[in-house]
């Protein structure tokens, strides 16, 4: 039997209320193929708690949130606070004996680079995964672009990220890894024709998800389809603005902000909704898209991240404007036979992205590096 690779993994992880964050790191950490020492930022257990995890260790990492529409002076102040918090968190990790004596180090955010670099000096191989909107920070930062060159492997979740990163990182160390979905958990339980007239979207209420665009598109749809509902699952800093837009558009009886829901509740909605929509400005390879497709939801998305790649021939890609987004959603709303066909194709497509395949891909990358 092949010897288990000893891995130090540093990442945010799923919590009871935020079951989607850090899901890839969670699946890798729980795999029987690896001997993992897992570190994650400490959370306030009064408000949230981690899912059941093994080998979990905490480090203090305060989340410094930037105010919206702030002045340059305020940005400098908050950037300085964030840098200090990163430095303190990194020092705490460096002085923790548990991070040493591993075969390799895999971090899942650029903020955790300092412990990785220290361990590289001491002989460890180091890997980083670039998720979601991190690529924008890297594109704008000379320091981060050059910092990535030090890593032995750089993994990314979308072909667009790969193309950008290949401009300054050797393709020999750069890998596209996509994302995964639990196809045993997320699966259809009813015919498309038995589903409710619900348009569903899942994600944090923040500017990247662009829910204002989705509500504007739904407002167009609603004029002639007032028996349909729009349900948005997630929480975040843009809730008040989104709620105000719902009020202004007089959609209070048809648009519902559900807040954070656990995985079982989200799965139930995905299994009973007729359409799933992503209206984002920025994405990598969104897990929610995979999960909705696995549950049999026909999907519509803006052209972000790997959405175009995944939805090819099974869903629709919309331009980043309310009219085209409404038009693509209406295609599915107006033809149950078309939507039923897309539903079946979505399940088949999602089944190609199981977590088992995702873990095997990482195992090959680790083995080849060592």
What gyration radius follows from the Cα positions, in whole Å? Answer: 21 Å
What count of helical segments does DSSP give?
14
Number of strands: 13
Main β-sheet, in a few words?
Answer: 7 strands, parallel
As for the CATH topology of the largest domain, it is Rossmann fold
Mean pLDDT figure: 90
In order across it, which strands form the biggest sheet?
Answer: 3-2-1-4-5-6-7
Total count of domains: 2
Shape: globular
What would you give as the CATH superfamily of the largest domain? Glycogen Phosphorylase B
Kindly estimate the percentage of residues that lie in beta strands according to DSSP: 15-25%
Which structural class should the secondary elements be placed in?
alpha/beta
User: What is the CATH class designation of the largest domain?
Assistant: Alpha Beta
Q: Kindly report how far apart the N and C termini lie.
A: 17 Å
Which stretches of 5+ consecutive residues score pLDDT under 50? none
The proportion of residues forming helix, as a percent range, comes to 25-40%
What is the H/E order? EHEEHEHEHHEHEEHEHEHEHEHEHHH
Q: Can you tell me the CATH architecture of the largest domain?
A: 3-Layer(aba) Sandwich
């Amino acid at each position: 039997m092949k010897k288990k690779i000893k891995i130090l993994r540093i990442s945010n992880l799923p919590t009871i209320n935020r079951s989607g964050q850090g899901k890839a790191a969670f699946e890798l950490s729980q795999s029987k193929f690896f001997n993992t020492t897992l570190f994650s930022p400490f959370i306030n257990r009064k408000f949230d708690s981690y899912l059941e995890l093994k080998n979990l260790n905490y480090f203090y990492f305060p989340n410094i949130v930037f105010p919206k529409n702030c002045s340059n002076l305020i940005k400098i102040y908050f950037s300085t606070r964030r840098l200090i918090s990163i430095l303190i968190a990194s020092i705490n990790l460096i002085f923790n004996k548990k991070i040493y004596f591993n075969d390799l180090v895999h971090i899942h955010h650029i903020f955790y680079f300092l412990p990785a670099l220290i361990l590289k000096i001491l002989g460890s191989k180091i890997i980083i995964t670039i998720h979601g909107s991190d690529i924008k920070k890297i594109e704008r930062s000379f320091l981060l672009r050059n910092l990535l060159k030090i890593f032995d492997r750089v993994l990314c979740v979308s072909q667009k990220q790969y193309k950008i990163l290949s401009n300054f990182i050797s393709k020999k160390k750069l890998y596209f890894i996509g994302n995964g979905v639990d196809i045993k958990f997320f699966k259809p339980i009813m015919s498309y024709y038995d589903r409710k007239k619900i348009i569903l979207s899942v994600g944090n209420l923040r500017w990247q998800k662009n829910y204002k665009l989705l509500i504007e598109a739904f407002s167009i749809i609603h004029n002639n389809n007032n028996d349909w509902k729009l349900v948005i699952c997630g929480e975040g800093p843009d809730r008040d603005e989104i709620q105000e837009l719902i009020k202004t558009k007089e959609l209070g009886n048809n648009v519902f902000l559900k807040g954070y829901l656990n995985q079982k509740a989200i799965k139930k909605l995905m299994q009973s909704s007729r359409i799933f929509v992503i209206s984002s400005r920025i994405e990598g390879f969104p897990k929610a898209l995979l999960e909705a497709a696995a549950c049999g939801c026909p999907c519509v998305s803006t052209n972000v991240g790997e959405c175009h790649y995944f939805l090819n021939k099974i869903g629709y890609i919309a331009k980043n404007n309310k009219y085209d987004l409404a038009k693509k959603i209406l295609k599915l709303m107006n033809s149950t036979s078309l939507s039923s066909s897309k539903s079946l194709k979505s399940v088949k497509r999602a089944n190609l992205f199981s977590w088992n395949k995702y873990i095997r891909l990482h195992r090959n990358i680790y083995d080849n590096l060592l």
